[in-house]
Amino acid sequence: RTPQSQNCSCMSEPSIGRPFDKACMPAPDKIPWKVIFTSLPVYAYAIAFFCEGWVLFTAVTHIPKFFLLHKGYDIKSAGIKCIIPFIGQFIMLFITGFLSDLFIARNYMKPTHVRKGIYVIGNVISAGCLIAVGFLDNLSSAISCLFATIIIDGATRGVMLVNPLDLATPYAGIILGIGHTACNLAGCICPLMAGHISGNMIIERWRFVFGITAGISLLGAIAYVVGGSAEEIKGITTREYRYSECPTKNSEKIGLLPKKDSTHSKSDGQ
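Above: the chain sequence. Below: its structure as tokens.
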């Protein structure tokens, strides 16, 4: 999408040095709250972000404890090696972003199919790796599955970060805030649930925790396939919700403000 189609001059003009760029600020009373909170793709996005967060927080907060209790391995002893999966996650963000743009630019797939495909593949792999951690006796294989879960999460996280721009570019920050709220809510609930279930520390209960997490991961994939979208929310950029003030030199050119009538301007000057 271009700035012209999204009614946003801040994407087409440099804004460095401007302390307050009204062109990038929708009027508070014009934010389409009703459109946002009655949109199925927004709810699907929030559920998907919640489930993605659940998987990541489980992998980061509880699997190290599982390794210590049942594998006799303190993951802290790995030292700097512990950052490997997060470096991999960072790289995965770029890889999936590049592939997404490539498929969309060359019309191999529609944007919605690209977003859903990457999210579902990432979630399914993460779910499989989590279940495998509880059943693998080999320590190296179990650690590899943990690392794979965190790295693959970079693919699903990349979809979650860019999808708000698909749904409503002028209000992407609001939708992203909804998604992050859901994700952080998972971070609050997940440790409590896992700690309660794995209370007596037996291996079967840990496997049950990983199974629940895998199920939630698949639930997120289903929700996103059913309700997710990479198309603009219907009615989100109607004239009623466009920016009210765009004081930049190209605002008229790209359709942000109606062009001034030169006839009326001359008559007013006279």
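The first helix runs from residue 3 to 6.
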